[in-house]
C-alpha cells in the first residue's frame, strides 16, 4: 500500500508540475491578453488616417490664422488713425480676407496683378480733392495727386510733412503762412488756385502709372484754358516730364530740363487759331513739396520757390495798384454824378 500510495503521489505531483509548466507557457505567449490583429494594417484604417491628417491640417491652419489675425489687427489699428469707423471696418475685412487665406485666387491677383489697378481699387472709397479755381488768377499750382491725408481732410497738401504751405509763405507767394483748411480762400485772398494732374488719391507717387499722368494732361490744359491764369506752377518734376512727353512725344533730356520759368513756347492752355489778349499761362516748374522728396535740402527748395515768389509779389502789387485806381475812378464818377 505504501508503494502504491507513493506512486500515486508522484503521479499527482508530476501532473501538477506539468499543469504549472503549461500555465507558465500560456502566460508567456500573451494569448488572450493582446490581440495583434488590431495593430495590423488593413484598408479599413484609411479613413481614420485621413481624418487624422485633416484634423492636423485644420489645427495647423487655425494656429496660422490666429497669428495672421494678430498681424492683421495690428495693421488695422495703424490704419484706423486716419480713417472713419466705416472705412476702418471695410479695410479690416480686406486685410483679413487676404492675410488669413493667402492662397485664394483673389489675394493672388491682388499681389501679382497690376499694382496701379490694385491701388485704384484699394483707395476707391477715398474722395477726390476739389479744385480751387477762379478766373484770371495770378497763378494756379498743379500738384501730382491727393495723398490719403489730403483726401480725408478735404484740403490740399494736408500732410504735416508736406512743405507746400511753408514754401508758399517763405517764397513770398503769400504774406503769411496759411493752413491747409484755408485752401478754398486762396483765390479771394491772394489770387492763387490749386488743381492736380491726377484726381484719384493714393498713398504715394509709386502707385501712379506714367500713362495715368499722361492721360491727365489734356484735362489740365482744358482747365487752364477755361480759367486763364497768368501763370501755372508745376509742383514736381514728374508732372512737367509728363506734360513734356505728351507735347513732344518723348522724354525730356537732362540737358533740357531745368527748374524755374520755362520757354515762352511752353505756355499752357493756348487757344490755337483764336485772337485773344490772353496768350496762355506762363509755366514755372518747382520742386516737389512732398515729405518723401528728400533729394534736395530745404535751402535749395526755398531758392527755387523764391524765384516764383518774387514774380507773384510783383504781380499782386501791380494788381492792387490797378484795383485801387479803379476804385478811385468809380468813387470820382459817383461824386460827379451828385
Automatic annotation (TrEMBL):
<keyword id="KW-0234">DNA repair</keyword>
<protein>
    <recommendedName>
        <fullName>Uracil-DNA glycosylase-like domain-containing protein</fullName>
    </recommendedName>
</protein>
<dbReference type="GO" id="GO:0008263">
    <property type="term" value="F:pyrimidine-specific mismatch base pair DNA N-glycosylase activity"/>
</dbReference>
<dbReference type="Pfam" id="PF03167">
    <property type="entry name" value="UDG"/>
</dbReference>
<keyword id="KW-0227">DNA damage</keyword>
<dbReference type="InterPro" id="IPR036895">
    <property type="entry name" value="Uracil-DNA_glycosylase-like_sf"/>
</dbReference>
<dbReference type="InterPro" id="IPR015637">
    <property type="entry name" value="MUG/TDG"/>
</dbReference>
<dbReference type="GO" id="GO:0006285">
    <property type="term" value="P:base-excision repair, AP site formation"/>
</dbReference>
<dbReference type="GO" id="GO:0004844">
    <property type="term" value="F:uracil DNA N-glycosylase activity"/>
</dbReference>
<feature type="domain" description="Uracil-DNA glycosylase-like">
    <location>
        <begin position="134"/>
        <end position="308"/>
    </location>
</feature>
<keyword id="KW-0378">Hydrolase</keyword>
<dbReference type="InterPro" id="IPR005122">
    <property type="entry name" value="Uracil-DNA_glycosylase-like"/>
</dbReference>
